[in-house]
């Protein structure tokens, strides 16, 4: 969750670190700090955002060619100046930044207190830097060895970077369960919790594996080893990240930019994988496993949040098209439930970030039972794709807005490709329908383009409902996950309570909530259970609820009933989530803007949830 950046080389570190923090701010934003060596080991940190840190240091002449920086999402200890990272060791010779949770920090802290160490913060991180220094002193070992020994005593997850005043050309970094990337420059090195702060300086990167420690010195070769002291050869990869993808590109917020990117990001997620003319669906990343998938007696999809909603669409697709039974599980529940798993099971793990701790843990559990794990991830080189047996990247490009938008539609697109491929292999779909669906899928980017044209109309709606206290979202069939996703988007960025429900379930409880004050968003596109949804709308109307309906272009029946109607282009029922989600994303966006909420960095949230 927290953002980490480090630099050592010949350039001035501060601009690199502060820019890096801005790039990483979506990972956490309740405090920020920097440590730099300029003769002395200097530290600047403050509660608040990176801009607050910049204000805090303004006027100070910060110099130095080595430094570390951190933007925090609090776990241990409230967000304040003292708990902000970096943390000094007791002697102030070392500074350390950390992402993750040291689970046994209390017992380690107790031991150190008994040996007269005095802690300043409430963080687990301070315990680790004290422990490292204690080992250096007690055992007379150099810093890199002390870090290694300390990490062997730690239970939990970490990505850390340490610097020492006494060795001002060296950065040491390590990871377990939290991501870490090393960028290799000409005679310098960049370290970060993801590649976004590195992309503008170098294209050569190394993704650390769990329990690896890297030691980099200006102008020298990288030293990579495991915490068990096994020396490893670094595997250098080419970073493919377009810098413009990291900028707002004229949009007011990343979220809006990412909503508008969807015609392209959907196209990118099927580019080279779909050829309607030739009747071809090809997913190179899973080709070795597709026979096994097609023969599977069941598929279990594991994910969290928005990715879980995409998984739900996947369930409908796989069952509809390929006749494979699917269960969709919250990773956080699945992993603690002692699920029944065996070697025949196929697990599809969906994650935008590829770092979600619960999803990773669920994968480990399923792997330990012999299941085959297929990943659907967006961030290239992240932990999940490196853990799975095979997988497919969504290629949606970096998603910076904390609320997931283009990643969702890209995940649904990839799931659609998988389901179509399975159906083709199993012969559960007629050839003509298969071809029709491929052509239809190819037309989705232009239909999404068209769906985006309701933006102005949605703005009007947002004005009307800016101060609503609750929202209900209803949908059936393929539109049920859309309702869930619409509700999640609204609550996370505008802080309005919203619930998504299967439309027919409303009468089993939520109908009691409906009155004049309750806006009800109904996704009532013209296929599937359309008539039934019309009846559900009537039930809401009869109780004075205010209906905002998402309908297919040209609809008449719902138009007569609904208070407000938003049209989306006609498409096959299977692909409706790809177009019907668009107005709901826009609605949540505009309401949040009108409520003056921080759209890209909603309170309490962070982009990649690397804690359990
Ligand atoms: C909602 C949102 C979250 C994520 C969830 C899983 O807009 O972004 O609900 O979908 O935290 O994250 P990933 O997909 O990175 O595993």
How would you describe the overall organization of this protein?
By secondary structure, the chain is α/β, with parallel strands linked by helices. The protein has three domains: 239 residues, 4-Layer Sandwich (Glutamine Phosphoribosylpyrophosphate, subunit 1, domain 1); 183 residues, Rossmann fold (3-Layer(aba) Sandwich), CATH 3.40.50.10490; 151 residues, 3-Layer(aba) Sandwich (Rossmann fold). The protein has an eight-stranded antiparallel β-sheet, covered by helices on one side. A seven-stranded antiparallel β-sheet has the order 5-6-7-8-12-13-14, covered by helices on one side. It has a five-stranded parallel β-sheet with strand order 19-18-20-21-22, with helices on both faces. Helix 11 links the parallel strand 20 and strand 21. 57% of the residues are buried. The model has no long low-confidence stretch (mean pLDDT 94). It binds fructose -6-phosphate. Fructose -6-phosphate (F6R) binds next to helix 9 and helix 16. The site of fructose -6-phosphate (F6R) has 15 residues, from helix 9 and helix 16.
Strand share of the residues? 15-25%
Largest beta-sheet details: 8 strands, antiparallel
CATH topology of the largest domain: Glutamine Phosphoribosylpyrophosphate, subunit 1, domain 1
Q: How helix-rich are the residues, as a percent range?
A: 25-40%
User: Which distinct ligands sit in these coordinates?
Assistant: fructose -6-phosphate
Cα gyration radius (Å): 25 Å
Instruction: Please provide the count of β strands.
Output: 27
Task: Compute the separation of the termini in Å.
Answer: 11 Å
* Domain count: 3
CATH class division of the largest domain: Alpha Beta
Going by CATH, what is the homologous superfamily of the largest domain? Answer: Aminohydrolase, N-terminal nucleophile (Ntn) domain
Please list the strands of the largest sheet in the order they lie side by side.
3-2-4-1-10-9-11-15
Mean pLDDT: 94
Q: Give the number of helices.
A: 19
CATH architecture of the largest domain: 4-Layer Sandwich
* Unreliable residue runs: none
Overall shape: it is globular
Structural class designation: alpha/beta
């Amino acid at each position: 969750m927290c953002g980490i950046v480090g630099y050592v080389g010949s350039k001035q570190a501060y601009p690199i670190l502060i820019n890096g923090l801005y790039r990483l701010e979506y990972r956490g934003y309740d405090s920020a700090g920097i440590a730099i060596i300029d003769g002395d080991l200097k530290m600047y940190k403050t509660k608040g955002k990176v801009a607050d840190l910049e204000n805090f240091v303004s006027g100070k002449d910060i110099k130095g060619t080595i430094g570390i920086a951190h933007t925090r999402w609090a776990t241990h200890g409230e967000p304040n100046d003292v708990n902000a990272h970096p943390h000094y060791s007791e002697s102030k010779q070392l500074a350390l930044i950390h992402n993750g949770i040291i689970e046994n920090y209390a017992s380690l802290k107790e031991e150190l207190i008994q040996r007269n160490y005095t802690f300043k913060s409430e963080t687990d991180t301070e315990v680790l830097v004290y422990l490292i220094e204690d080992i250096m002193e007690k055992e007379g070992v150099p810093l890199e060895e002390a870090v290694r020994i300390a990490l062997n005593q730690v239970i939990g997850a970490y990505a850390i970077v340490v610097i020492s005043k006494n060795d001002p050309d060296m950065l040491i970094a390590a990871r377990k369960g939290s991501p870490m990337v090393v960028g290799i420059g000409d005679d310098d090195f960049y370290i970060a919790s993801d590649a976004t702060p590195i992309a503008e300086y170098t294209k050569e990167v190394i993704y650390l594996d769990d329990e690896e420690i890297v030691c980099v010195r200006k102008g020298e070769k990288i030293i990579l080893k495991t915490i068990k002291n096994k020396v490893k050869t670094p595997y250098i990869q080419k970073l493919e990240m377009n810098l413009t993808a990291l900028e707002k590109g004229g949009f007011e917020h990343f979220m809006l930019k990412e909503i508008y990117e969807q015609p392209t990001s959907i196209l990118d997620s099927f580019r080279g994988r779909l050829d309607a003319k030739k009747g071809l669906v090809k997913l190179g990343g899973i080709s070795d496993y597709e026979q096994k998938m097609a023969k599977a007696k069941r598929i279990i999809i594991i994910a969290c949040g928005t990715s879980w909603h995409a998984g739900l669409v996947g369930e409908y697709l796989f069952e509809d098209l390929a006749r494979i039974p699917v269960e969709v599980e919250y990773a956080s529940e699945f992993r603690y439930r002692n699920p029944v798993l065996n070697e025949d099971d196929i697990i599809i793990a969906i994650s935008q970030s590829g770092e979600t701790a619960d999803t990773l843990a669920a994968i480990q559990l399923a792997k330990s039972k012999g299941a085959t794990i297929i990943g659907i991830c967006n961030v290239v080189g992240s932990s999940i794709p490196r853990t799975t047996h095979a997988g497919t990247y969504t290629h949606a490009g970096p998603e910076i807005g904390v609320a997931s938008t283009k990643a969702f539609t890209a995940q649904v697109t990839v799931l659609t490709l998988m389901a179509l491929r399975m159906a083709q292999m199993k012969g559960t779909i007629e050839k003509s329908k298969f071809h029709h669906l491929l052509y239809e899928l190819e037309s989705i980017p232009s239909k999404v383009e068209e769906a985006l044209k309701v933006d102005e109309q949605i703005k009007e709606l947002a004005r009307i409902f800016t101060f609503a206290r609750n929202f209900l979202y209803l949908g059936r069939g393929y539109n049920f996950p859309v309702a869930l996703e619409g509700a999640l988007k609204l609550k996370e960025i505008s802080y309005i309570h919203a619930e998504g429900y299967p439309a027919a379930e409303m009468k089993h409880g939520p109908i009691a909530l409906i009155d004049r004050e309750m806006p009800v968003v109904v996704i009532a596109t013209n296929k599937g259970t359309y008539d039934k949804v019309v009846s559900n709308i009537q039930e809401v109307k009869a109780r004075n609820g205010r209906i905002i309906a998402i309908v297919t272009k040209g609809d008449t029946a719902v138009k007569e009933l609904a208070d407000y109607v938003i049209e989306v282009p006609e498409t096959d029922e299977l692909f409706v989530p790809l177009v019907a989600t668009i107005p709901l994303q826009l609605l949540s966006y505009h309401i949040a803007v009108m409520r003056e909420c921080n759209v890209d960095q909603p309170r309490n949230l962070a982009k990649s949830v690397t804690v359990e």
